[in-house]
Design brief:
By secondary structure, this protein is of the alpha+beta class. It contains 9 helices and 6 strands.
Length: 247
């Protein structure tokens, strides 16, 4: 059987380039769903897709940067990897006030879907989440009691999944726990003070709420059929929820 152009485009990428393209694809799909959801609520924007599909790659608040960092590929080679994808017409890149932004092209989306076997969107039950929201929930579930750092989910996932976020359709399947960590402060040369100086930072992580865990356990088999490319693990039973630290 002849290999499709989209599949050849995916196979021609090395593992690092595939990782970048997949993470950018997930961000693109999250932006698309957010745009359509706003339209369904009567807030349809006439802005061109170039505006609302812009992906923040490396600003301070970029979830893409967080996911790339987790995969061990957020480093000085970022520019060359994006250039390789751009040269293949899989993405476009630009600059936004000093930060890098990107857009998926049709060829880029087709390459990811072909390479990972993502078929046309299947009809899903009314209770089911979209693919990118389910992927976000699975990312948190995989971390167990440790939790997923909040920098690693795109903003739309936070608004739709975290308890008490004021977004219509919010599911309340995730909560954010805060742990206060003490660390030794270094001077401008990177040396520790003697005697030691201490500072405190807060580490924020996502965890499944009881409702999120219940939804996951009840429907994971159906989600595996809807989105077979997402490797959703079975959850252990009776996993305690972490307790939020107080300041």
């Amino acid at each position: 059987m002849a290999t499709s152009k989209a599949r050849r485009a995916w196979d021609d990428l090395n593992q690092r380039q595939q990782t970048y393209l997949r993470i950018l694809y997930d961000a693109d799909q999250a932006l698309e769903e957010e745009h359509h959801d706003q339209g369904a609520r009567g807030q349809w924007s006439s802005a061109p897709a170039r505006v609302w599909r812009r992906i923040d790659v490396n600003s301070y608040y970029s979830s893409v940067a967080g996911r790339l960092r987790t995969q061990g590929v957020y480093d000085s080679g970022l520019g060359s990897t994006l250039s390789a994808l751009t040269d293949r017409a899989l993405i476009q890149t630009g600059d936004d006030r000093g930060s890098v932004c990107a857009w998926m092209t049709r060829a880029g989306r087709a390459a990811v879907r072909s390479g990972l076997g993502i078929g046309p969107a299947a009809d899903r039950p009314a209770w089911a989440m979209s693919e990118w929201m389910w992927r976000a929930l699975v990312m948190v579930a995989e971390t167990g009691t440790e939790g997923l750092p909040t920098s690693e989910l795109w903003n739309a996932a936070h608004r739709y999944l975290v308890v008490d976020e004021l977004m219509q359709g919010n599911r309340g399947y995730l909560d954010v726990t805060i742990t206060y960590v003490q660390y030794k402060v270094r001077d401008h040369n990177g040396a520790l003070y003697d005697p030691p100086h201490y500072g405190t930072r807060d580490d924020r992580h996502y965890h499944l709420t009881d409702a999120g865990r219940a939804h996951y356990v009840e429907h994971v088999a159906v989600y595996r059929e809807l989105y077979p490319d997402i490797d959703a693990p079975d959850l252990p039973t009776n996993t305690p929820m972490p307790t939020e630290a107080s300041g």
